[in-house]
């Protein structure tokens, strides 16, 4: 009985949202609400997709619109304007996606969120390694100073620039 009541509660919330002007505001501020397929090709959106043989585009809005509204409202809006008929549980979370239209007319997506997370994970590990190397070097120089009373020649610690930390990925 709990699942049925929960479904009724969600339906009630959805009806309240649709009766309010929030959906109209989101729709009017969404740059890609009523555009031709050529205009959405290779654009970066906040949206969702359906997993299949390909990642199929389900719905999306531009980043500016996403930032103007509450995430719950945006999620409900995208669910209601989804190209496919989906259950709420199978609807993916909001992602940063790039829409790619294939020659046969399929709307596929490239999940940018996935790649951003990979880069962030790599970045964090490289930065942590850099910090631990820097701390070890400082300890070495301090130990030398405690024993000899001065820093070793050329002991100036120069911090690496953050730019280029992931350069090894391109090699």
List keywords for this structure.
171 residues; alpha+beta; 2 domains; four-stranded antiparallel beta sheet
Please outline the helices and strands:
Blueprint lengths: L1 H18 L2 H8 L7 H4 L3 E8 L3 E7 L1 H6 L2 H10 L14 E7 L5 E5 H37 L23
Antiparallel strand pairs: 1-2, 1-3, 3-4
Describe the fold and architecture.
This protein has 2 domains: 2-115, no CATH class; 119-170, no CATH class. Helix content is 49%, strand content 16%. The chain is built from 6 helices and 4 strands; from the N terminus they run αααββααββα. The longest helix has 37 residues, at 112-148. The model has no long low-confidence stretch (mean pLDDT 74).
Question: What would a concise description of this structure say?
Answer:
With 171 residues, the chain is α+β, with helices and mostly antiparallel strands.
